[in-house]
Amino acid sequence: MENLDPRIVSDQELKALESRIDDLVRACGHLKEENKMLQARQETLVSERAALIEKTEMAKSRVEAMITRLKTLETGT
């Protein structure tokens, strides 16, 4: 006769729960690795962005200096 007490868990239910827990542990490990990769990628992109901003500012300064020289040449003639 089957035990109908809801407090008693069968072996099959325990194995199913164990399997789900194992799946969650694997998923957690996968997400941790993915998170590490995304953080590293973000750091790379932030560095690249900073370098591009610096280059843009340098180019802007050089263009402004050229414009100033051209204006000086224009008024000096």
Radius of gyration: 33 Å
- Detail the poorly predicted runs: none
Number of alpha- plus pi-helical segments: 1
Beta-strand portion reads under 5%
Roughly how many Å apart are the termini? 111 Å
- SSE string: H
Largest sheet: none
How many beta strands in the DSSP annotation? Answer: 0
**Overall 3D form:** rod-shaped
Name the average pLDDT: 92
Derived from helix and strand composition plus strand pairing, the structural class reads: mainly alpha
Percent of residues in helices comes to over 70%
* Domain unit count: 1
> From the structure provided, what is the oligomeric state, counting identical versus distinct chains?
single chain
Note down, in words, how this protein is organized.
This protein has 77 residues and is mainly alpha-helical. The chain has one domain. Helix content is 86%, strand content 0%. The protein contains 1 helix and no strands. It has one helix spanning 11-76. The longest helix has 66 residues, at 11-76. The radius of gyration is 33 Å and the shape is rod-shaped. It starts with 10 loop residues before the first helix and ends with a helix. The model has no long low-confidence stretch (mean pLDDT 92).
